[in-house]
Amino acid sequence: MPPQRSLLRQRNASFVCAAIAIALSVFNSPASAVDPLYTVEERAFAVASPSLIYLEAQVTGFLRRKDTGEKFDAAAILVSNKCTGFAVSAQGHAISATHCVRPTADAVHRTAASQLAASRVRAGHLQPGQREAFAKEVLDSTDFTGETQGSKAKSVVLGQPYKGEAGAPAGKALEAEVVASQSIADGDVVLLKFASTIPAVQLAEAGTSTGSPATIVSLAVDSDGRNFLPRFKPAKITGEYGSRVPPSFQMDADLGEVSLGGMVVDASGRVVGMINVNPSAPSKVNNHVTNLEHIKRILSQANTQNSASPADDAYRAGLNSYFSGRYSDAGGKFDAVLAAHADHPLAASYKKFAAELLAVEGEKTEDSGLPGWALALIVSLAAALVAAVGLIFYLNGKRRSATPAATAGYSPATGHDSGQAAEYDYMSIFRQPSDGAEKTD
């Protein structure tokens, strides 16, 4: 057979095989074969973030002279630590970092002296260069007490679910009870209890390890410096820190000062560790991970289980349907969540997203694993390809009948790369800025 005719037949056969392959892929591809329109980190954030809590640990007292018992300043001083927590039970239990929620008396005293010095500088009673020396003098000569000499300063832990406002007015924040706490050396995990139910996150079976990818989920300061909003960032566990057992870890990501006490989660949105401060860094860089075993230990010691409410289960089921393209089913599950918790932070948003995508894409069919619009498009393309194959056969037949067989040699056909169309990122409202996280003052 002449080489030219052989080549034409091979090419025609290749077109036919391509058409058959496309048709088979359309009608037999499972849902998992469809490229998702979201990243692993975005889905993990959607699963875990409703359990976030903005925390303020407030200590109110007076600096009082050690020698006379008199108040060094007539005004009460409020020392406030800001950090993140996350709910872990259907009964309102939450986890955070001990050194934020229960600061030591020495730490509170130092902060109070520093705040008094700063206020004197702002009022013009001190020069900026005198601030440090004045703060040390106050620290050495006073105690931080309550209303009367020898009494303890008043302490309270306040929480705002999902997002927060610094110094929020009374009634906006929920008061928390400290159930149990670990020292910094023993894990630095504190267990809180709120009277109200907050969506609970799931704990993973095992914690993280060196080299593992993860996502950090916490609150971070907004551009106004007063409001704190949920954020996430991809991270990688770069190694262990120190020699304690179980180990703590270092990671290559940070979401700012208030991220202390936030979550490190796996691809499924389950907690594998707690965000903590780097003890060796001069600034407050929260790029350390407290081992999951410390969280599980404090829950066990307090006889508390990591549990979910029916609304939590419905929300996660709704996300599974949503991210699988079953938008009608997702909408129904989010309705169930909102019926139980009308103020759920994300269920209403995802219900809206599901309705919008259903209108644009249609429902994914069970047979193909594809949304209806994608199925119709691919079927049309396959039909066009089959028609093109038929046209090629026809033209080749005409050419063979009109042209003698060629006897010259030929060059093999070369392949080509195909690009991939850009996808619509409907999760972009949660995507993080590329620059570094902002710090609080």
- Give the terminus-to-terminus CA distance: 83 Å
Largest sheet: 6 strands, antiparallel, barrel
Q: Return the CATH architecture of the largest domain.
A: Beta Barrel
Number of strands: 14
Tell me the Rg in angstroms: 31 Å
What share of residues are in beta strands? 15-25%
Q: Could you name the CATH topology of the largest domain?
A: Thrombin, subunit H
CATH class of the largest domain: Mainly Beta
Describe this structure in words.
By secondary structure, the protein is of the alpha+beta class. The protein has three domains: 3-29 and 369-402; 51-307, Beta Barrel (Thrombin, subunit H), CATH 2.40.10; 309-367. It has helices at 3-28, 40-48, 98-101, 105-122, 131-141, 292-301, 310-323, 327-340, 347-361, 372-402, and strands spanning 52-65, 77-87, 93-97, 142-145, 154-161, 164-165, 174-181, 189-194, 213-221, 227-241, 248-251, 263-265, 271-276, 288-291. The strands form two sheets. Strands 1-2-3-8-7-5 form a six-stranded antiparallel barrel. The chain has a six-stranded antiparallel beta barrel with strand order 9-10-11-14-13-12. A hairpin with a 6-residue loop joins strand 10 (227-241) and strand 11 (248-251). Helix 1 (3-28) runs antiparallel to helix 10 (372-402), helix 7 (310-323) runs antiparallel to helix 8 (327-340) and helix 8 (327-340) runs antiparallel to helix 9. The N and C termini lie far apart (83 Å).
